[in-house]
Fold this protein.
Amino acid sequence: MAIVEIAVLGVAAGVMSGLFGVGGGVIFVPLLTLVLGLGQLDAEATSLAAIVPVVAVGAWRQDRAGLVRRRAAVLVGLASLAGVIAGASVATSLSDATLRRIFGLFLVGVAAQFGLRAWRHGRAGSLRP
């Protein structure tokens, strides 16, 4: 994989995440599988690893601004660790095809949620003068 390709994918995923307000994995994983040809598990693992420096910088900046509720952050973080361990165990036990199908269903759910929100927002907006 060329460094330039990977950097372009990173910038593109970051722009789309910021523009559409979705997590990087929703964008990164499909890009890594479709553009770079990674397997589903490799793409998911790469996406998780890529987010670590972004999260660290973002959390540090938000904490400096006084916006982090540290107790809540620690509790959510610890609970998330348990979920990540369980999820990674399940992911590594599934075939690439099965994991890809499950991820596809997840993306359909995300798309449905965004569509429903847009529809509701459009209806609420139409009631205003």
Summary: The helical segments are 3-20, 24-34, 40-64, 70-93, 96-126. DSSP finds five helices and no strands in the chain.
